[in-house]
Amino acid sequence: MKGLHALSKLARAGSLTAAAAELGVTRSAISHRIADLEGQLGVRLLRKEGRSSGLTDDAEALLAAMGDAIERIEAAVEPLHQRRMQIRISTVATFASHWLLPRISALQARHPDMMLAISTTRRAVDLNDEAFDCAIRHGRGEWPGLNATLLFRETLVPIAMPTIIDIADATIIRARSRYRDWPTWWGQSKMPNMPSDKELIVDTRAQALDAALSGAGVAMMDLAYIGNHVAAGSSIAWPIRSNCQRAIISSIARPLVTSASSRRCGIG
């Protein structure tokens, strides 16, 4: 196969030097691969044309008979190679945008051979039947048949622009996906009054955070998602926190292999 691949590249590239560059090998390596193929087939495939090499009639006939077989084999094999090196992660959109993706560059620096495929959904995924290696969800980690790793415990805090001073008078931004966050926090904060009746309801916490940063009101967020905004002074987070802490769990269906050395790696 190496000899056939080299011969096909040479025919398309037009020279040994160009074919070697495409394959990422030396000019000598290309010549040796084709010479090995000549020995196996018992025919000459290259002829000298001054300082360059041309294809013989037998080589032309062989390539014509092969057609696009090499390209089709490469197309079939490449996805298998990609998946072997790829970690497929399922998580929710807010976690992906505000916790996972900001840490990807550091993960890539530690594991340069790793390729990631991140999919976001709110539904539970079946790690036995679906094409995911890892799922990251809220929960206690008590899932039969899965290995669970605690990434961090959630701490709920209200967040708003600095122009909003009093939570009780502000518009409360609720996310349908986490509708109980506000009653949970308010009940444990020991604040005397209930929040304002003014509400803005959105689908996700990511949308709630965007709305809060635009000045639309106060959103309830996980402290882990908003540290950069608070540190930059673009928003404020009230220091009263909920005692109800949810765990963010990374559930791994099978070992994560990053290279031939079979190193196990985690996220976070």
Task: Give an overview of the whole structure.
39% of the residues lie in helices and 22% in strands. By secondary structure, it is an alpha/beta fold. The strands form 3 sheets. It has a 5-stranded mixed sheet. β8 (172-175), α8 and β9 (199-202) form a beta-alpha-beta unit. Mean pLDDT is 75; it is low at 239-268.
How many helices in DSSP terms? 10
Strand order of the largest sheet: 4-3-5-12-6
Portion of residues in beta strands equals 15-25%
* Biggest pleated-sheet summary: 5 strands, mixed
| CA-atom Rg in angstroms | 29 Å
The portion of residues assigned to helices is 25-40%
Report the strand count: 12
Distance from first to last alpha carbon: 42 Å
> Mean of the pLDDT scores?
75
Unreliable stretches covering 5 or more consecutive residues: 239-268
What is the 3D shape? elongated
Series of H and E elements: HHHEEHHEHHEEEEEHEHEHEE
Assembly type of the chains comes to single chain
Name some characteristics of this structure:
268 residues; 5-stranded mixed sheet; alpha/beta; disordered C terminus
SSE topology sketch:
Elements: H1 2-13, H2 16-23, H3 27-41, E1 46-49, E2 52-55, H4 57-66, H5 69-85, E3 86-91, H6 93-100, H7 104-110, E4 115-120, E5 134-138, E6 147-153, E7 156-160, E8 172-175, H8 181-189, E9 199-202, H9 205-213, E10 218-222, H10 223-231, E11 236-237, E12 247-252
Parallel strand pairs: 3-4, 3-5, 8-9, 8-10
Antiparallel strand pairs: 1-2, 5-12, 6-12, 7-10, 7-11
Helix pairs in contact: 1-2, 1-3, 2-3
